[in-house]
Amino acid sequence: MAKSPINYEDNVTNSQNTVKTDFGEFKQEYFGSVYTEGVNSNGDTQKYPVGANIYMTFKADPAKVDNARQFGFINQAYSTIKSTSTSPVQPYLAEPGHKDFATTDKTVIDQFPGMNNPLYATDTKSKKGEGNDIAGYKTKFPVHHAKKHGAETVSGIIKNRKWAGHGEFGKEYKEGSKPVSKAATFQDTPHNLEYDTYHTLENNFESAILSFSGSDAGMYYGSVHWGFKVTEKTEEADPTDPSKKIKKRVIDGTSIELKSGGKPTAAFLKSVKAWNESKTNVASRKDIIQIPDHAAKISVDKTPLFVTEADIDLAKSTELSKDTPCMTFESKVLGKDQKSYDRVRVEIGGKAMMGWVPSSNIIIRQ
To answer: How does pLDDT run across 33-44, given as a tens digit for each residue?
Structure first.
C-alpha cells in the first residue's frame, strides 16, 4: 500500500517583529512551531503540531525609564480546547496545579506550580537568601540556540525547538555617569502532547515587563499578546485511496502585538490578584512571593517602616524619607489602633527592606 501523505500543515513562519511601548521595545527574535511524531492508521510516521517556540527581548528606553536596576517578564496564559468540531469551547489549565492560583475563567500567571517567584525566568533553587523578596532570585537559564547545544528536542518528545533556556532579567540605569543597559530575555515552548484527544487547541498569552528593583520598582513597561492555535481538519479524500477521508492538523500562530503601553490589561491584573490571594487561600502557597500592586513613593518625611506586623504595637521602626520610591504588595488593617497599612519594598543605600507603612503616607505612582 502506498504511504499516506503527512497530515501536517505549518502556518507558523519563522518571523521577527518589533513592538514599541511607552517605555521601550519588545522584539520577537524568533517564532516557530514545534511538533511531535506519531503513527497514522497505515503505520506511517507523521508529524503532528503541538505548540510553538518563541524567543523575545525587551529593551528599555533610557529616555523613558528612570532607574530600573532589574526588570523582567511576567507571563499570563489563557487556553481553550474543543473536544470535537461540535463541542463548545472550554477553558482549560495546562497544569493541574494551576487551579490553586487561577481566576474563575481559568486565566493564570504562567508559572510552574511549586515555583514561588512569579517572574518568568526565576528558579526555585537560586534564591539569594534575602527573605520574601521578589528581587531575591537569580536567573540561571539564559536563552541559547538549542541545536548548537545539542538539545533540539525537549525530553526527546518535542521536535524542532530552535531556542532553549528560560531567560534573564534586564537593566537600565546609570552608575554615576556610566550607563548600564541590558535587555530582558524570554523563551517559551508552550505545547500539548495530547494532540489526538482534541479538535481545537488555542493558547493565548499576555507577556508584560515589570521593573522590580531601583527607583522604578513596581512600574510596568508594557505588554504584548501572542499565541497559537492547532486545529484538526478533514480533507475530502486520501490521494492514495479516494474512498477514504484523511485528517490533517493545522497550526496557526499569532506574532507579538501591542496589548498595553504601560500597565497591563484588566484580565492580566485579575490573574495577578488570583496569584496574590493564593498566598492566604491555599496552604501550600504560604511562601509564595506576591506580585506588586503599584509603584509608589513615601509622601511624608520620617514615615515609620515596621518590618513585622508585631513591630507596629511595639513602635519598633525604621524611618523613611519623603519621596522614597517603593512598591506596594497588599493592604491590611493592623495594630491596636486598627489603621490601614501597606506592605512595601524599599531600597535604602543599596539594601532592600520590606515592611509595613501607614497607607496614608503613600502616593501611588501607577
So the answer is: 999 888 776 777
